Amino acid sequence: MKKVDLVCPAGGFPALRKAVDSGADAVYMGFRDSTNARNFPGLNFDERSAAQAVKYAHDRGAKVLLALNTYPQPQSWSLWTDAIDRADRLGIDAVILADIGLMRYATKKYPDLRLHLSVQGSATSAEAIQFYKEQFNIRRVVLPRVLSLAQVERVIQNTDVEVEVFGFGSLCVMVEGRCYLSSYATGESPNTCGACSPAKYVEWSEGPKGRDVRLNGVLIDRYDQVESAGYPVLCKGRFNVKGKLDYAIEEPTSLSVVDILPQLIKMGVAAIKVEGRQRSPAYVGQVTSVLRAALDAAESNPEGYVAKSEWVEQLGRVSEGTTHTLGALEREWQ
Ligand code: SF4
Distance between CA atoms of 333 and 244, rounded to whole angstroms? Predict the structure, then answer.
């Protein structure tokens, strides 16, 4: 049976080191600009730190994937193509792309550069994946978190492109590559500027009714004194809809596939991805260690596999809202 890759986030060098030392088969990272969808202050790599990161990972047998998964803007096309040139110079193992113009640039200029289709590319069918394979020799696809388990299996059965699925971490409302909620309030979105809810637009204030958080002036949540608050994004705000105040779009919770690893392995998933380049090195180390142990157990004894309670507990502690879900994977009606 082919081993499943554990792909872990590296928002900076300390997180990359934690991921590699805790058993990641591959790490993914981005440059310090709007070419990647986690363009937050203090995160990401310049060329020098990226070279150190590649060396650290390669010396320990781990691969390095580069996320170039935003959509180039007309006025700054060369920012994105320069990033592809840099990836080739650095000896990156694969570039994760969403934009077909960049795929064309990469395949023409660097035919040996391995390309992965980002979740931002929103390919949910074997037909769409086949298109990217035929046109750009895409070697792996990261599936959007909108598919049920049966749908993931059907995709795998109908394509020979490797399939990567998300295994742990915060959930979007699951319209990867198509969400403009953040743009609606701020003019900036993950697809264009690399950040959902950019920090410069976030404003906290204490009021008589609780702690308010606004995004560019739009009230998106209000917390009482005892509630813990996560990073505010529009899809997980609480809104008044027809007189009912609630999470109208998505609840703040994390995806976790630790209970169903043998099923994913059996259906032929090539890689399991951990979300969270914006999270701390401690988070990356903890999640990577747990999933490493769980994946090893599921691969060596799929029939007897049971997710240990200490794994679930450890993951629960770092989950958004301290709860987890299988999300769309368990929506059988799909
Ligand atoms: S608003 Fe929500 S769904 Fe949209 S990109 Fe941000 S986190 Fe994802």
Answer: 26
Token pair of 172, please?
């979007």
The residue whose CA has the least distance to atom 4 of ligand 1 is 179
Same domain? For 231 and 296 the reply is no
Residue 102: in which H helix or E strand, if any?
helix 100-109
Q: Ligand 1, from 179, 192, 201: best to mutate by most atoms within 8 Å of Cβ?
A: 179
| Together in a domain, 42 and 133 | yes
Where is 135: in which H helix or E strand? helix 126-136
User: Does residue 176 sit within a domain?
Assistant: no
Calculate the dihedral angle through the C-alpha atoms of 278, 190, 99, 117, rounding to the nearest 10 degrees.
40
Average pLDDT, the chain: 93
pTM over 0.85: yes
Centre of ligand 1 from the C-alpha of residue 303, in Å: 37
Range of the domain at 224: 181-247
| Residue found by looking up tokens 């299988």 in the block | 326
The best mutation among 118, 182, 253 to test binding of ligand 1, ranked by most ligand atoms within 8 Å of the C-beta, falls on: 182
3-state secondary structure of 216: coil
| 72-93 residue pLDDT tens | 988 999 999 999 999 999 999 9
| 3-21 per-position pLDDT tens digit | 999 999 999 999 999 999 9
- Both structure tokens of 78: 């060369």
- CATH code for the domain in which residue 259 is found: 3.20.20.60
Helix H or strand E segment including 317: helix 309-318
How many domains does the chain contain in total?
2
Domain match, 31 and 146 both:
yes
| Same domain flag for 40 and 134 | yes
Residues 6+ apart with CB under 8 A from 241: 248
Ligand 1 pocket, Cβ-based, cut-off 6 angstroms: 172-173, 175, 179, 181-182, 190, 196, 233-235
Domain boundary among 196, 230, 247: 247
Same domain, 23 and 153: yes
